[in-house]
Amino acid sequence: MALTFRVMRLAAVWRTRLERALRPHGMTVAVMRPLAYLMMMPEGTTQRDLALVMDTDCSALVRVLDLLEKEGLLSRTPDAQDRRAKCLSLTPAGREKCALFHKVAGEVEHSMKQGMTAQDTQGLLARMDALLTTAHSLAS
Fold first, then answer.
1. H or E stretch including 42?
2. pTM of the prediction?
3. CA of 91: how far to CAs of 62, 117, 124, in Å?
4. How far apart are CA 38 and CA 51, in angstroms?
């Protein structure tokens, strides 16, 4: 339970710090998370694919996407192969907002890693990747 507790505690602390850093820019993690994922995914990703990658419920995601579309940060178009599916694209304003999110998140990460060497960081990333790989294989 020692690892479980530390992972959960670190996630909570990290998210709180990120939320506080985003607040002056009118952003929240919940709203920015889908945009950040879209920034890394291929153009025209479907809502369903985004929900799968984010490991979230599609109906909960749709509410956030509605808000993001209303704010002009993303657009949804019908999928050419499946008219029921919607393809997502970041707008220029969405890309700009993502760039700011990445900057703020990078600053939070930098402050949280104080005292860690580059080697420490690489080792931690490798171990976290291994845990994520195991988690994904267990979910299948």
1. none
2. 0.84
3. 17, 37, 34
4. 11
Contacts of 120 (CB under 8 A, 6+ apart): none
In the predicted structure, residue 125 carries a pLDDT above the cut 90: yes
Residues 33, 35, 38: CA angle, nearest 5 degrees = 110
| pLDDT tens figures, 30-54 | 999 999 999 999 888 999 899 999 9
Each residue's pLDDT tens digit, 42-95: 888 999 899 999 989 888 899 999 999 999 999 999 888 887 888 999 999 999
Cα dist. 47→40, 84, 111 in Å? 14, 11, 33
In the prediction, which pLDDT does 80 show? 82
d(Cα 97, Cα 89) in Å, to the nearest integer? Answer: 14
| Both tokens assigned to 24 | 């002056």
- d(CA 29, CA 31) in angstroms, rounded, equals 5
Q: Are 74 and 45 in contact (CB under 8 A)?
A: no
Residue with tokens 């860690």: 116
| Cα-based distances in Å from 100 to 24, 35, 111, 122 | 12, 11, 17, 25
